[in-house]
Amino acid sequence: IFKGTVRENILFYSDYDEMRYQEVISACSLKDDIQRMNNRDLTELSDNGANISRGQAARISLARAVYRDADIYLLDDIFAMIDSNTSQHIWASCIQGPLMQGKTILFATLQLHCIEKAERIVLLEETDGFSSIIMQGPYEEVKGNEFFIHLDHNEEFLPKAAPLDTLENNAVPKFSVLESPMHQVSDSEDRETGAVKLSVVFSYLKAAHLVLFSCAITTLISQQIFDNLLRYWLAAWASDSASATVLFYISIYSFLSFFFF
What we know:
The protein is mainly α. Among the domains are: 1-70 and 78-99 and 163-188, 3-Layer(aba) Sandwich (Rossmann fold), CATH 3.40.50.300; 198-260, no CATH class. 47% of the residues lie in helices and 11% in strands. It has helices spanning 6-11, 18-27, 31-36, 54-67, 84-95, 139-142, 146-153, 164-169, 198-208, 210-239, 246-260; strands at 4-5, 44-45, 72-76, 104-108, 121-127, 130-137. The strands form three sheets. The chain has a two-stranded antiparallel sheet. A two-stranded parallel ribbon has the order 3-4. The chain has a two-stranded antiparallel ribbon with strand order 5-6. Helix 2 (18-27) crosses helix 4 (54-67) and helix 10 packs antiparallel against helix 11. 16% of the residues are buried.
């Protein structure tokens, strides 16, 4: 989640399609959350989604991926931070819904109730930091495996989807977008009105030293420019708008990352 509105986080520099956008936020169970926000989907989010719950952040990230309309999706335990009722809705409306029909989905999860409809299941076991394949095949074949049965019955080993009141409510910080008076992402501060006096400006410049101050300003501006360029390039890479090779995209991304960091 980056600093910007809910809509900007979902679109991720893609063109806005009202019909698809509404279908995506509905399938990802975001409509009710957006309706409760003070400025709806134009509500501003802070970096890393600090002003929303982890469940909301997970669903916004999923909506971003689904809106992209890719051919292949890699989903890493997306239900870990989502309550069970919401996860069932997302599984039925999004994962198995028309939006992802005909897509290839690689779905990593510990929630075994989600995999019954999978075409192929791969059981992995981690040993000494390395994962090995124990068995693979359709659900009817895998469910009889001793390791799968052990996972299915061992509640201490398998993390269950957390209840609604622990993730979707208590995880929201006190300055949540659902509670703040406007759509600001930080607490209000006292301030004076009117123009800043030149004496104040010169005091800051004198204290900071002109050369150091100029370097700091230049660095901040450059960092912001390269940060935006990195996001635009990732969006272009995801849509493959340049129709170039992977090496080309990686080379440009590495070049921009070098100057950004």
